[in-house]
Amino acid sequence: MPAVKRAPKGAKKADTQTDKRKSVPLREKPARKASAPAIEFDALNEHLGYFVRRMQVSIFQDFIRRLARIDVSPAQFSVLVVISANPGLSQSELASALGIERARLVRMLHRLELRNLTVRLPSSADGRRHALELTREGEKLLAKAKVLADEHESCLREQLGAERHQTLLAILKTF
Amino acid sequence: MPAVKRAPKGAKKADTQTDKRKSVPLREKPARKASAPAIEFDALNEHLGYFVRRMQVSIFQDFIRRLARIDVSPAQFSVLVVISANPGLSQSELASALGIERARLVRMLHRLELRNLTVRLPSSADGRRHALELTREGEKLLAKAKVLADEHESCLREQLGAERHQTLLAILKTF
DNA sequence: TATTGTTATACTCTATAACTATA
DNA sequence: TATAGTTATAGAGTATAACAATA
Questions:
Q1: Domains in chain B and their CATH numbers?
Q2: Interface of A with B in 84-113 (CB under 8 A)
Q3: Any chain A CB within 8 A of the CB of B147?
């Protein structure tokens, strides 16, 4: 057995339910038993949020898998794309454009900078700001990332059908 | 000043860049300066994942805000709905139906059980399984949650337009 | 052996708050 | 005083691994 040893455990929480669980089987509806009856999603079927969430998770999983070999996450991809397209952008501007917390962006840029993909240059106009840019290496990696991301998108377009893909993109952009 | 005191800080990471930052302004493209020029999203404009993510975050924020007073998160809502519609469901079945980790569901049910909303009954057929059900209190809270969730959805339908809302729901369901 | 529920761990993300240095 | 960048912290969420009880 490796080092792990198992800490003494919080107790309390588990105990409150042990009584019920180990004691008399109060009652139990026959409902779910035989041959895998399809699960009913009820109210969730009318809620966009549920399906949007499922799709987002699924899309991100594919994106992450495809860009794993260059180690670029969806969030990192969006940061690299926007810096490249808007060189000199400040961290605040970038964060608010992408809906990322300023504080989180700091750590993201930290890692990107350690990998020599981005730089924070001093802004000549305002001593508080950083002018963000990609390094040459950053631009090269972004180019590779865009190829992989396009493959990802093509696969998605194929899954959905070009028309639905287009419709979806159009509707989401209006939101 | 309250207790906080500030730990000695990791150093190293911050230092590696301090040199660059405090030293000569290497160069800086004039690009972003004057009157808030619109930010360019470039490749992101073609990626469904980016917009799906933005929409999901936005929808969840509204959902969370509206159900805050009954303290029900989107994930909790989906769990309550599915248990109510499929009484006797096991934790594994529920987890896989909703795409939640088995381990995470344990903690979620823990909290719901502490609030007296759900119960884990022993399964008569299989000693390993729990038969999940809502308590009467759970059903009552779920009824309230459904009302609020419907209001949330109505607002969303209004924002998008009924037609686009319908189209979106239909396409997402095929995915 | 495999499965169900459970605990633990580690890492990411989100949300705040507070600090510094500049403005 | 306000803003830009930074650090710290707490809470969720995600991903694993391991374990006990049961099959």
A1: 73-145 (1.10.10.10)
A2: 84-90, 93, 97, 99, 110, 113
A3: no
Cβ atoms of A132 and A94 closer than 8 Å: yes
Instruction: Report whether A116 contacts A135 (CB < 8 A).
Output: yes
A124 touches chain B (CB under 8 A): yes
* Cα(B114)–Cα(A13) distance, integer angstroms: 8
C-beta of residue B114 within 8 angstroms of C-beta of residue A16: yes
In a mutational test of the B interface, the residue from A15, A50, A147 whose CB has the highest number of chain B CBs within 10 Å is: A50
- Per CB-CB distance under 8 Å, the chain A contacts of B20 are 119-120
Q: Provide the mean pLDDT of chain A.
A: 85
| Helices A48-66 and B136-160, packing angle to 10 deg | 80
User: Can you tell me the distance from the alpha carbon of A51 to that of B99, in angstroms, rounded to the nearest whole number?
Assistant: 12
- Whether residues B122 and A173 touch (CB distance < 8 A) is answered with no
pLDDT in tens, A47-93: 999 999 999 999 999 999 999 999 999 999 999 999 999 999 999 99
B132 has which bridge partners? B89, B120
Q: Residue A171: which of B88, B156, B167 has the nearest Cβ?
A: B167
Confidence (pLDDT) at A25: 38
Bridge pairing between strands B130-134 and A118-122: unpaired
Instruction: With a cut of 80, say whether residue B169 has pLDDT above it.
Output: yes
In 3-state terms, what secondary structure has residue B142?
helix
Distance from CA of A3 to the nearest CA of B (A): 22
Using CB atoms, pick whichever of A86, A164, A173 lies closest to residue B40.
A86
d(CA B104, CA A101): 25
The confidence score (pLDDT) of residue B36 equals 61
Taken in order B159, B164, B166, B172, is the CA torsion positive or negative?
Answer: negative
Instruction: State pLDDT tens for residues B10-31.
Output: 333 333 333 333 333 344 444 4
Q: Which residue of A has its CA nearest to B59?
A: A49
Q: What is the pLDDT of residues A88-117, one digit of tens each?
A: 999 999 999 999 999 999 999 999 999 999
